[in-house]
């Protein structure tokens, strides 16, 4: 009967203090975490970040919320403020947004034993340190670091839920392919504040070569071949040879400039830089050959 269920829900919070964690003053609270990745928005090397849309779920036991009903309660996100909620955060996050359309994408489940499951949907953009030495033949490993802001290992112990830690619903991307994903657990020290349980969601991306082949490798190769056509032009046809040489040099310089604007400024040479430098030497060499001969 509906009234019995309503009374049971209201009775959950009688004498309940949501300012105190479960088992306050006792052993650490075990929190199981699992993530479902709905999609990856982008892996953006210029800003060294990646974005993903996830269902983020946390589960723990709060014995204060045991109830006599023989079925779990499913409550909307509007009831979230009544519960004690762990202050979980993403250490390397840049921006994050909870989904609110058409309503808050939050779900709370309370079982008769006091087990709580909090499920939320959010979009996260996080920093990702990338090594671009092999660009565009590179493979990048990006992580999402999860831990508590206030509670150290004496209060909260995070663990990935067995066999369901990291689920990829859609790993398709235009520029990258997802090669691997896994959840890891470690301890992380923060100076002056203690040691915290630290979960890491790790994603390995490999760049698709098709875009670079079409936009960079093929045009550059054709420019080099075009510059070599001057060898078959009579040395007496000065305007034709000079115009062809200067045009190909300017074209490859423009191509190098456009690429420079699409990748971050790094202090090392990338694989694509070597390719373009060698191509530029071949193109510029055609002009030097004409001057020497």
UniProtKB/TrEMBL annotation:
Keywords associated with the record: Cell membrane, Ion channel, Ion transport, Membrane, Signal, Transmembrane, Transmembrane helix, Transport
Protein localization: Cell membrane; Membrane
Keyword Ion transport: yes
GO cellular component, one term: postsynapse
Domain Neurotransmitter-gated ion-channel transmembrane: 216-293
Pfam families per UniProt: Neur_chan_LBD (PF02931), Neur_chan_memb (PF02932)
Domain of life: Eukaryota
GO function terms (MF aspect): excitatory extracellular ligand-gated monoatomic ion channel activity; transmembrane signaling receptor activity
Name used for this protein in its record: Uncharacterized protein
Organism: Nematostella vectensis
Lineage: Eukaryota, Metazoa, Cnidaria, Anthozoa, Hexacorallia
